[in-house]
Structures are given as C-alpha cells and as structure tokens.
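ARCHIVE CARD
CATEGORY: sequence design from structure
SOURCE FIELD: tokenized fold
FIELD CONTENT:
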C-alpha cells in the first residue's frame, strides 16, 4: 500500500510540474492543483493512520493517533481552494484585458 501511495504522489507531482510549465493559464492552474493534491496526500501519508485509537492521550491508553496531520491537511485543502479560486479569477481578468491566455501575455492569437 505504501508503494501505491508513493506512486500516486509521484505521478501527481510529475503531472503538476509538467502542467505548471505550460504556456497557457488553464494547464498552469491545473498543475498547481495537482501539486497541492500531492502535498496533501504526502502530509496525510506521513501521519500514519491508526485505526481504533483515540486522538487524545488518556490514562490507561497504550496508543493514540496524531491529529496534527489531519488538521494540517484540512487547513491545506481550504488554502489551496482559495488560491485556486484566486488564480482562476486572475487568469480570467488577464484574458479579458489582453485577449489571450498565455502566461507571458504577449503572444499574438
């Protein structure tokens, strides 16, 4: 299972980097989204999910699960959604003003 998660994180990162280096704005936005998904999966995988263990240590408990990775991923999801919305609005505004969707803004259609 660890190899599958590692492969998925690697593929998402590779696709995100490839799409982020494209010349159009939509693939750049999609690439940034893939990179944020890869980072979220990486954080969640590093948290080591423990099934049936409480998130808070108590007397008499032998183990507990760390709630910090889940909190970090939840925060990262909210931040990545807000940044994606901001980049989409910025790309639409640039397309309206320049008439093209290249990231450098000087390409003639």
């Amino acid at each position: 299972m660890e190899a599958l998660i590692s492969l998925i994180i690697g593929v998402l990162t590779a696709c995100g980097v490839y799409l982020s280096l494209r010349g159009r704005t939509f693939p750049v936005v999609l690439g940034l989204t893939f990179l944020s998904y890869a980072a979220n999966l990486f954080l969640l995988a590093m948290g080591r999910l423990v099934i049936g263990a409480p998130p808070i240590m108590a007397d008499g408990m032998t183990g507990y699960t760390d709630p910090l990775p889940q909190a970090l991923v939840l925060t990262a999801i909210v931040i990545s959604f807000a940044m994606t919305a901001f980049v989409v609005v910025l790309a639409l505004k640039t397309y309206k003003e320049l008439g093209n969707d290249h990231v450098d803004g000087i390409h003639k259609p």
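CARD ANNOTATION: The chain is about 65% helix and 0% strand. The first helix runs from residue 2 to 20.
SHELF: design records, drawer C
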